[in-house]
Records
---
Amino acid sequence: MRNFLLVGFLMAGFLSSAQTYCTPAFASGCSGGDVIDSFAIPGAGFDHPDTGCSTDAYGDYTSMTINLSAGLSYDFSVKHGYSDQNVRVWIDFNNDGTFDDAAPELVASASSTLVGANNITSGLITIPSTVTPGTYRMRVGDRFSSDPIPCNTDGYGEAHDYTVVIGAVPTCFAPSALTVSAVTANSAQVGWTAPSSAPGSGYEYYYSTSSTYPAASVVVSGTSSGLTANLPSLAAATTYHVWVRSVCSTSNKSAWSQMATFMTSCISVGVPYALDFESITPPDMPSCTSVVNDGSGNLWETGDLDAQGFTGNVLQYSYDYADNADTWFFTNGINLTAGVTYRIKYKYANAEGTVYVEKLKVAYGTSATGAGMTNTLADHSNIVSSTATSAFANFTPTTTGVYYFGFQAYSDANMNQLYVDDINIDVAPACSEPNALVVSNITAGGATVSWTAATPVPANGYDIYYSTTNTAPTATSTPNFTGITAATYTIPSLAPSTAYYVWVRSACSATSKSVWSDHATFTTLCSSVNLPYTIDFENVTVPDLPGCTVNVNAGTGNDWETMDPPSDSQGFTTNVLKYQYNSSNSGNAWFFTQGLNLTAGVQYTISYKYGNNSSTYVEKLKVAYGTSPDASAMTGSIADYPSINDEMAHTESITFTVPTTGVYFFGFNAYSDPDQYNLYIDDISINNANLATAETAVAKNNIQVYPNPFTDVLNISDIKNVKNVSVTDVTGRLVKTIANPESVIHLRDLMQGVYLITLEMKDGSKQTIKAIKK
Ligand SMILES: [Ca+2]
Ligand SMILES: [Ca+2]
Ligand SMILES: [Ca+2]
Ligand SMILES: [Ca+2]
């Protein structure tokens, strides 16, 4: 009973004093990233992550307790969301409700730095040995650009309050001032300074590849009676963290010391050696590589490109305005054997856009220095292509040893970007692989793959491997075809409408094969279908084309694409196919339908709507058919519209026959001049002329109005189904309505200008035609 009363009394006393603390404020708030996001004291086992920006920039976390000991110092870290942060930590050691902004109550002060991509403040909280053990309030203040004060009011920032319980000064102190020396590829020595009263039973140390502060109960790595310890059996090129503690007696050990960090040295490695730069975060370099600047331009660094034929990260040289490039990137040391022929492969390219010539030299030698690069392997002195270019060089060292490979950027000043990726060094194959794969004659069931022959031509021909997945074959993969002697092969029996990947290799002899080439990819065509065939562009995600149709750009203008219903051309009210002008090049884009099964001599009808969205700019359209979706195969002419410029949909319906039974593709060719506007197509329909009822409707609506332009009268080509004619001007104002019209309409009383003539049919449908009054 007495204990309960005592606890209650202490709690009441603590809470009443807590109420006297000022509430810190930051007039500009913390929502811009000027925030105590995460706060951690690893040596006290305390971590308060991802707190974000508190309401009113103050977080009262006094329900959380941090256990610290008098006389010890603790590393802390704060993560922010913005740069230039200043952190101060205070503890109200005399419990008077006020944080003095000076020692001893000011226990830490530090500023943020950029660590990787994060703004981090790291510092040391020092608890004086004179502090009476007990419970206190801790305040952590963070402010942008200037130091926070305990009762802050201005600026950007945030504050957190916590409860700390300070324990008695330990009788056993940790060693300090850890140093790591004699670092090799697999060992290192750690040394330290003894605490002021040396421990009775020596020291324990713990090391790990993790930077997590070890628990008191961790299984230690070793013990030492002196002030050093050897760390054996380490992995090469690896980052390690080490801590030491004092063993004052078997029952009394100090806390772990502050952490020391080191990286073991690199060792030379064998082939195959590959660098794709994916294991690092740009602009860092892969471990065990190096960069040297022999001039006064910039240094090689890494960047995330993932374009232009490169995957992910690349090695990158960015121009210096004033100075020529002269920087080397060196690989790790590689063990090579005299007399063996090796091959180095890599990809390189220039930036996209305006061409600024880049220059790259590749060499190797026995030291990772410019002077050590005594054997030039390649000199690319005029790199102008933005597409990743694969290159390789074979070489045969005359002495067994460790060699470094160097990539030297030596571009002139004020150029642009030079990229390198996928460096690979291995024993050279007995013959090289073919390259520059291209795929042609793609049908629903096959495709022809061709390549540039390897030199020398492989004695046992070529092997082909294809797959529906983009996973490169390995040396042990079974090829689909072997012993192909020509540099081309038609792959048969493929599935329709399927994406394929294909690789080719050289069979140098019965036992020796080259590596596989880079892959080529293609998609087989859809199978041909029977009529009726209609396509209205409704079931697409614009600007995609409908499945089994294809755009082929036979020129240098733009491509066909789909768009939502246009509002700038009369008569197009649903999704359409669109050719949009290219400002400098003529159009020559073909839109091809799926293959259709047609029979010789049968009368077919093709109907479609076409039109443009301008009376100033002129579009040009050809419609044709042929036996493959290919511009050169479009030999059957259907229509040619060389002057489309009236901002409205025209419905066309044309009857045709084909000379031979077979599969036919229908092509719509936009061949507008440069810098015109939009050409639209919709409602393509191909039917048997004798069976279709749809065509009757098309024909019914296909009424002509002439002459156009007109002076006094307009003639309507087929009046029998027209119920009303209404005439509106370009502002949409109704000018005239003529019920039960004759085929000749008198319009002498209209002003000169453009009018829309709307024919309302007896079945309720309407057709609008634009006419010009002279
Ligand atoms: Ca916070
Ligand atoms: Ca105080
Ligand atoms: Ca890469
Ligand atoms: Ca449509």
---
Amino acid sequence: MSILDHSGPAARAQFWVWWAMLIVTVVVSLSVYALWLYTFRRREQPQRTPREERHIMLRWVLGGGIALPVVSIVALLVFAAPTGRSMLPLPLPEGEAERIEVIGHQWWWEIRYPGEEGERDVVTANRLVMPAGEPVDFRITSEDVIHAFWIPRLGGKRDMIPGRHSTIRLEADVPGVFGAQCAEYCGAQHTHMLLHVEVLERDAYDAWLAERRSPPVPQEGFDQAREAFGEHCAACHTVAGFPDELVVDDLEHDIRGPDLSDIGSRPTLGAGVLPMEEGAIAYWLQHHQTLKPGNRMPPHHHIDTETLQDIGAWLETLEP
Ligand code: HEC
Ligand SMILES: [Cu+2]
């Protein structure tokens, strides 16, 4: 997650701003310390009239207090402005940038790939898949409090503000896996709001998306698990293709949980709290309030272990 390990044009521009600021800061600090040491030099004080004294003081205030900061800040601004510009969603010479929506929730990430007319949106959570070598426009917002979207090795960051949409353009040079983290304190589980970013070649990205875009296959088996899911979970969680008649929605609040349609293929649970492996979902369902205290999913004490294990086993099969 290091900004110094840049892997895209925006991050590279920010890398140079970082170095420029470091160098300017070091030069300014060293000069100030040098002047400070200079004042310790013992010597005969020349006799000055109050007028001369005022004159000297004024020179320092104007030169060091006003001119120097103005010059250094303007220099940094001239250096940094193109960096900010590189992350704006300006028109491209050829075609349009890929568009991905990212919505912050306490404490997880909703990722949406809007469909063309008539197509479904592909929805997933806590894992962002994007194509390599081309600009991607991230349209970001928040559902509750202010979060911030930041993929250090690609560039950023940008606040995600409830009720407001903003767009940040990022590009990854090559395929790879990158870490990302909510960068604005958003409550008790802010640290457990990790985003797993996977950059794929264009072909692999198209295939990944197409798999999820195609109409869901009817689910077979796991009848009890699906019924229990309809009763206890479906009010908050969506699973593509899940039959409406099984959904019991008697919630008196509007908390929403991550879309679980492709949960079996995701790398982690709870926004990076647990690695996904066999049995991990059942474990998460029983211990999520200890693993991630205060998270918005209520505890499932009223559901017996066997049922939770059944549901977990079924969810693990959900892959596009
Ligand atoms: C009141 C709404 C609510 C109910 C009911 C609920 N959940 Fe959740 N669930 C959430 C929220 C919110 C999260 C995100 C927690 C976090 O990571 O901070 C979550 C997270 C999860 C995750 C992890 C998803 C991921 O992307 O890592 C799974 C799996 C899950 N829930 C399954 C279930 C199952 C199975 C049930 C029923 C037994 C259930 N949930 C009931 C709200 C709910
Ligand atoms: Cu956050």
